[in-house]
C-alpha cells in the first residue's frame, strides 16, 4: 500500500465521520431539549440562580485558613506536650519544626488557592490547584532536608510525630462539614 493511499483513506474516513455527526445534528435539532426531558423524567430539577445560591449557603466550604490556623494550634500543642513529656528543649524545637514543615507549605497553598486568579474559572482553578500542590510538596521536602542544619540537636521521632499529627488535621476538617443530608433530600424538605 502506498503512503498516498493511506492518507486518502484516512481523509475519506474523517469526512465520513463529520458527515454522520452533521446528519445526527440535523435529524435532532432539539438534542438539548431531549436531555432536559430525560432529566425531568428521572426526577432532576434544574435550579434557578437563587435556589443554587441557597443550596451553597446551606453547605458552605471549609476555609483553608481555618485549617491552617488549626494546624498551627495543634502543632504548638504537640510540641509543648512532647517537650514536657520528654523533658527536653530539643524535643520541643524538633516537634515545632515538624509542625512548620506542614504549616508553612499549607500557608503558601492557601494563599495561592484563595487568590483571584485561581478562582477565575474551573480550568484555571484545576491548574492552579496542581501548581500549588507541587509547590507545597517541594517546600515540604526542602524543609525536611534542611531540618538537621536548622534544628540542632534534631530529634527525628518528635519531628515526624508532629508532621503526622498536623497532616491529620486535614481529616478533622472533613469532619467539620459533618454528615448532612444529600442534596436531593434537602430539596424535598
Structural features, described:
The chain is mainly alpha-helical. It has two domains: 3-46; 62-185, no CATH class. The chain is 80% helix and 0% strand. The chain has nine helices and no strands. It has helices spanning 3-27, 31-42, 49-58, 64-86, 89-113, 122-150, 156-167, 169-177, 183-188.
Comma- or semicolon-separated keywords:
mainly alpha; 80% helix; elongated; 2 domains; 189 residues; 0% strand; disordered N terminus
Please tally the β strands and state the result: 0
Helix content: over 70%
The outline comes out as elongated
Spell the H/E element sequence. Answer: HHHHHHHHH
Short description:
With 189 residues, the protein is mainly α.
Topology:
Elements: H1 3-27, H2 31-42, H3 49-58, H4 64-86, H5 89-113, H6 122-150, H7 156-167, H8 169-177, H9 183-188
Helix pairs in contact: 4-5, 4-7, 5-6, 5-7
